Amino acid sequence: MQVDIGNALAEVATPGIPREALERLDDRVAAAHARIEEGRANDEHGYATLNQPDNVDVDAIEAAVEPFADCETLINVGIGGSALGAATISAALDSDVEAYYLDNVDPKWVADHLDDIDLSKTALNVVSKSGMTAETLSNFLVVREAMEDAGVDWTERTWVTTGPEGNLRDLAEKHDLPSLPVPDGVPGRFSVLSTVGLAAAALQGHDIEAILDGARDADDALGPSLFDSPAYAYGAVNYALDQRGAGINVLLPYAESLETYAEWYSQLWAESVGKDGVGQTPVRALGATDQHSQLQLYRAGPHDKMVTFIRPKERADTTIPETDLAGLSYLGGSTLGELIDAEFEATEASLANAGLPNVRIEIDRVDEAAIGELLYSMEAATILAGELYTVDAFVQPAVEWSKKATRGLLGGGDFEEADEVAEKTELT
Ligand code: PA5
User: Phi and psi at residue 419, in whole multiples of 5°?
Assistant: First the structure.
């Protein structure tokens, strides 16, 4: 993975980072790296994320999914960090097993999905670190009932991935379901390179060792200077641009298969650094599609944002058929890959010409190793950013607040958060 920050510098962009400022920031990166290394050495909460590639029990994951080897479909029930990492890998890599990620609880959407799926050929993975999340447990109960209605023994088709306590753990014990543990010290949104993200990948036939090798490569590249460490360069530049007014970061992958990666990154960054009145807002976009919509704003609107391009250098390609239609002959014989690449280059140059800061992340191709490297690198970038912002990247009090309020409102316990909502509702 290469990260090019040239278009984020003050000589190109406004806002942009003066070279001297980047050098000063590098001292803070060195201090942050030392803190991160210390946290890793002690397996501290959150920092332990970066030790995951060497801690994953690949054999246990493969053994857990082996009984479901005959399945044609995977339903992953989970939300937030218990869905987006696995969904990112599923979206990036081809598989014969189709995966559905039931995270939201929109009733029509859930019902439509269940109508489409042959539940007798489905493996169901229920994922919740806390084992208490209302959306996940509700969707599980809905899928379970649909399986029962279809005459499918759900206990034969289900495994759970959860922590040591909680409703889901109780359920697994009651029904003697196979289960995988969620590792300690790894917050939900940082858990993709663990049982949480990798079991679905294993079920879909992906080489999870290769994903972890990619992550290890990214780990090897971490060091005390942003000038030598692509992941830290990215985290530090985002932070420095945010400090200078680029409070929005538009993720613009030029690969359909990486759209979910942008979604995963958005969760990781927003939930980790968005607290104590600071944080940069991630926005998901897609090249070349959004060239025909949002690009107008990015190029000509306020300079309150940066754009992150993600580009695979190689891809499977399709030739555009020759045509004698007047004016279209220039397309014939080219490929769709050449076209999307030209669009990427044009957009990058156009934003640089307009002085909008942008960063280019390149991978050789979308494969297991690159996905592992991309996932790990953004986890490291986010952890570094947490140090630079001086926030605790590993907590999510606002998210927990809404989880408690939801449970309380549905009668799942006494929560002052639910009382607050009730009071507000009475006032309006
Ligand atoms: O990062 C986080 O902590 C959250 O996004 C959680 O992953 C999400 O709320 C789901 O939580 P759980 O896995 O406990 O069901």
Answer: -65, -40
Give residue 282's Cα distance to chain centre: 12
Q: Quote the number of domains for the chain.
A: 2
Whether 423 is catalytic is no
Give yes or no: 292 in active site.
yes
Domain shared by 60 and 33, yes or no: no
Question: Is residue 227 in a domain?
Answer: yes
Task: Indicate if 280 and 351 belong to the same structural domain.
Answer: yes
Pocket test for ligand 1, best of 133, 137, 267, 395 (most atoms within 8 A of CB): 133
Q: Is residue 420 assigned to a domain?
A: no
In a domain, 8, yes or no: yes
Residues 29 and 62 in one domain: no
- Co-location of 88 and 220 in the same domain: no
Domain that holds residue 112: 56-182
The Cα 261–Cα 326 span in angstroms is 39
CATH number of the domain encompassing residue 143: 3.40.50.10490
Both 28 and 95 in a single domain?
Answer: no
Choosing from 292, 423, 424, 426, which is the catalytic residue? Answer: 292
Q: Is 303 a catalytic residue?
A: no
| SS3 state of residue 160 | strand
Residue with tokens 């060195």: 30
Q: Please report, in tens digits, the pLDDT of each residue of the chain (428 residues total).
A: 999 999 999 999 999 999 999 999 999 999 999 999 999 999 999 999 999 999 999 999 999 999 999 999 999 999 999 999 999 999 999 999 999 999 999 999 999 999 999 999 999 999 999 999 999 999 999 999 999 999 999 999 999 999 999 999 999 999 999 999 999 999 999 999 999 999 999 999 999 999 999 999 999 999 999 999 999 999 999 999 999 999 999 999 999 999 999 999 999 999 999 999 999 999 999 999 999 999 999 999 999 999 999 999 999 999 999 988 888 888 888 999 999 999 999 999 999 999 999 999 999 999 999 999 999 999 999 999 999 999 999 999 999 999 888 888 888 888 888 888 888 887 65
What does residue 270 show for φ and ψ, rounded to 5 degrees?
Answer: -65, -45
Which atom in ligand 1 lies closest to the alpha carbon of residue 396?
Answer: 3
Dihedral, CA of residue 79, residue 81, residue 85 and residue 91, to nearest 10? 30
Q: Answer positive or negative: Cα dihedral of 135, 136, 137, 140.
A: positive
Ligand 1 center to residue 83 CA distance, Å?
9
Q: Measured from the CA of 189, which atom of ligand 1 is nearest?
A: 1
